[in-house]
From TrEMBL:
Gene3D superfamilies reported in the protein's UniProt record: 1.20.1260.10
UniProt-listed InterPro entries: DUF892_YciF-like (IPR010287), Ferritin-like (IPR012347), Ferritin-like_SF (IPR009078)
Source taxon at top rank: Bacteria
Protein's name in the database: YciE/YciF family protein
Amino acid sequence: MGRTKTTDRSALDIYLRALRDHLSIESKAIETALSELPVCERYPGLCRRMEQDLAMGRSHAREVTILLSRHGHPAPVPHETVSSILSTVSGLLHGGEEHDVLKNVLAASGYRAHQIASLQVLIVLAQQLGFAQDAAALDCLKDEEIAAAGALEGLTPEIVAQYLAAG
């Protein structure tokens, strides 16, 4: 009675679960970028940003996988290949008519904030556990996410102008 979830698990268990959760977040970001790329042709700046975000997401997923492995916990098998094929086919079939680029940019900004917050929690957990090398790696990932968020924010006026011009 009165036990909290954190008392049932060790700090290491919590950290490893948070790493796996963050890997899921990165996987979802990768899937989203793969599904949106085919329909953003009218927005070249956004397409370039999405390609950069896709590369960054893949790099971050690899880094988190390495961190999990370092602690003896292999990452789950990624489903990126299957989901990317399905997403690409879906995007091509729909031709992008249902995609609202402004709504998607807003969603991407919110998701990026979620990624940054997840990384911040992981950094604090790693520091609490004395995993200085993990904390440093995660801090680099967080800095890259913050820079990507700023780049997307900087593109917003261009995207809105192109959206309005497309009518």
